[in-house]
Write a structure and sequence with these properties.
10 helices, globular, 16% strand, eight-stranded parallel β-barrel, 9 strands, 48% helix
Amino acid sequence: MLVNMNEILLPAQKGKYGVGFFNAVNVEMARAVIETAEELCAPVMVGIAEVQLPAAPLEREAEFLIPMAEKASVPVCVHYDHGLSFEKCMEALRLGFTSVMYDCSTADYETNAAKVAEMVRICHSMGVTVEGELGHVGDNEGAGKLLKPSDYYTDPAVAADYVRRTGIDSLAVAVGNAHGDYKFPPKLDFERIETIAKITGLPLVLHGGSGLADEDFRTAVEKGVCKINIFTDLDKAGKYGAEKGLQDGVKSLLCLIPYEIEAMKQVVRTKLELFGSCGKA
């Protein structure tokens, strides 16, 4: 069933378990996520980030994600992740996405709060939930890599004001996490996570979940993280599945698809079990 973020994250917050959000840039990824969630009776979030749109246009995404979520036997939130522009967030709303992350984290605080508050006003009038980001989660490499990530950590002293001024439904935090492949094991600031969760009262979001240690996930959820974003692990698994098919002598794209889906389903299964959301739908 198609739901918004609150219908998934508020029970997770109360039940002290995590929910996986998986970027699904094609039908095979979406099938891997939703079919596995159904098999495990787990709520799940699925969607796409704005930086991924060159590979998967938003309208095409909506054409398969929305119907698949509506037909699912478990709660599925279709989420537009890291929306960088107001216009694209509005397009996601028009297309039927039930949740939006408006990422204004690179702007100054006043601009971030004002722009996200306006997005919340619009989205809430339509029954759509909103995720904001305070501080800034950088990348592990490339143009988005931060020289000193700790300078951009979420400030607990500011978090309560940000939540009050914006009215967001969940808060993405910067606590030592980063997008993409980790070259070295990250050191998450669990005390900061716990403090922010207590101060804001909101479900927290951990971006850059691929590559974290199992114990890091468990502790983060225990301290207040309710939504964990996964893409890199899923993407790599799909590639591995295709390579396995080729090694087995598969000679057509049609016959590679089951290899890709099964490899990605293994990742989704592992994450949902680790987050504790199995049987929670």
